[in-house]
């Protein structure tokens, strides 16, 4: 299965090779089972400003920079454009509420996967739309054996967040100015998948949320898997294919 997906990726982008040197992980819903907590906090925080933010919208906009999400939703519901500063104030309230939530668990299979990636001599990067410093610090603490701050892209590193390709292109740059065929993206959200695909990177969608697989496949995911443990199981097959071009 994997070989067919990779060959289709190479053909789709007219690349002559697939030779991964870095794996770029999204954070929420990929490293942590944190999306339910985010949904609660988005709803509560936005209600304070007269905005209705149902759970479905949390998944719809997942991966986008928080201030961009707020600007879009305010425009839709209140018909006005707000500045980045005003949106940031609203996002800060959402972040405050999230800090009061129980700590989300690490996704099953993530550390085992990172161990295998590291053993294959590849770099690991994190590309998130979050700008919450405590969350970034938790990543550094929980995954200290695999990633450092130089290889993390957050909301404040780019002007355009997901679904633009910028965050993942920045991830490639931080990994040593790699080419798209030298990376792998691991995502769980439609906007994140679209960002990875737009950057030309082989994009694995792990469907850890309530959306149908079609919501991820329709954004161009090169492969859709039901859980992180499945990607862990298939990792050596992916890595072995990439080594064909070394």
Description:
This protein is an alpha/beta fold and 246 residues long. It is built from 11 helices and 6 strands. The chain is globular and about 55 Å long. The model has no long low-confidence stretch (mean pLDDT 93).
Alpha-beta content class: alpha/beta
**So what's the overall shape?**
globular
Q: Give the biggest sheet.
A: 6 strands, parallel
- What share of residues is helical? 40-55%
Spatial order of the strands in the main sheet? 3-2-1-4-5-6
Beta strand %: 5-15%
Encode the helix/strand succession as letters: HEHHHHHEHEHEHEHEH
- CA gyration radius, whole angstroms: 18 Å
What are the low-pLDDT stretches, counting only 5+ consecutive residues below 50?
none
β-strand number: 6
Terminal CA distance:
22 Å
Q: How many helix segments?
A: 11
The pLDDT mean sits at: 93
State the gist of this model.
InterPro entries: HAD-like_sf, HAD-like_SPP, HAD-SF_hydro_IA, HAD_2, HAD_sf, PGP-like_dom2. The two termini are 22 Å apart. The protein is α/β, with parallel strands linked by helices and 246 residues long.
